Amino acid sequence: MTFSTPARLSVRPIGAEEHLAFVRTRRSVSFLQTPAWGRVKAEWRAESLGWFDGPRLIGTGLVLHRPVPRLDRFTLAYLPEGPVIDWSGDLDAWLAPLAAYLKERGAFAIRMGPPVPTDTWSADQVKEGIADPAVRRLPDLSGRWADPVGARVTARLWEAGWLPQNPQDGFGVGHPQFKYELPLAGRTEEDLLRGMNQQWRRNIKKAAKEGVEVTVAARPGEELKAFHDLYVHTAERDRFTPRPLPYFETMFAALSAEDPERIRLYLARHEGELVAATILVRVGAHAVYAYGASSSHKREVRGSNACQWAMVRDALAAGCDVYDLRGITPALDPADPHVGLIRFKVGTGGQAVRYVGEWDLPLRPLVYRAFDLYMRRRR
């Protein structure tokens, strides 16, 4: 859905029901921009905002307010993967009333991540880049498709004084700028299998031959502990910090209450033993692989591939346009420790996508500089 931007828009708070009703009119919205996500991030103060053209609601944003240490009256106003507006329109008309509203209510800065792509690379291009010693990062690849809307948004944010927050390696404290996505629109299961590499097809067949069974948890609350135990094991093996079990319990409760089909837990078992588990979140036509876990034992039965294929098939059956495998780094150097992740995702076919990324607009520069210094010292 696109529409021309009126010359004057107003921004004001809206209720969760009005916010959700607008989200349901859009084909694709990040789950981070749903009212339920504000209930998941309980350590932040959540607020639903609406953009109005007269009485008509034409855009929404979930804002998460984070207080400044020792300066609680000021907040960082964060819109993860949002807001939900027409990014092809006049950005000043959309963002100026947002800045005015938030500054008046104590925000010292706005941080947002426009859901707008800038560049796309095919799976074949990525594989060629990994094999080419002269290529070290995705942006070094030639032949990418550049999105003109993304280029205009990036240029206008620079001109308007927004500051990019995108780390060089693609991963930071916010949400990833580089993602891997599998387009689904107009395709069949056979098309998708043909688009995968030989190793992925072999692994899917191997899981089926070994008798791996993938089920969707009917009562996720009862199965979340098993998922979380496996997830903690995965975190120890792959050296990342796991989220606590109550986080997932809150996530399932909040998202399921908003829409029974919003979030699903997939469990892959071999001879009754849990070997892999994944979480899928869907808003409209956008399906997201949100979390995954796998056992170091019985890796040869390929439970992770079985879970992924089950989620892809369900997303396709639900009429989704894209299966989003979330973050990757732009590194293509085979010596880089993150290349294994992109190799795994490239095997699905699909494409690597760079987004506009996250940007800050300082509204109170002195407070913003103090906050920035505080955050740098914590890293």
TrEMBL record:
Domain of life: Bacteria
UniProt organism field: Streptomyces indicus
Keyword Isomerase carried by entry: no
Entries under PANTHER family matching the protein: LIPID II:GLYCINE GLYCYLTRANSFERASE (PTHR36174:SF1)
Recorded coiled-coil stretches: none
Protein known as: Vancomycin resistance protein VanK
SUPFAM superfamilies xref list: Acyl-CoA N-acyltransferases (Nat)
Family: Belongs to the FemABX family.
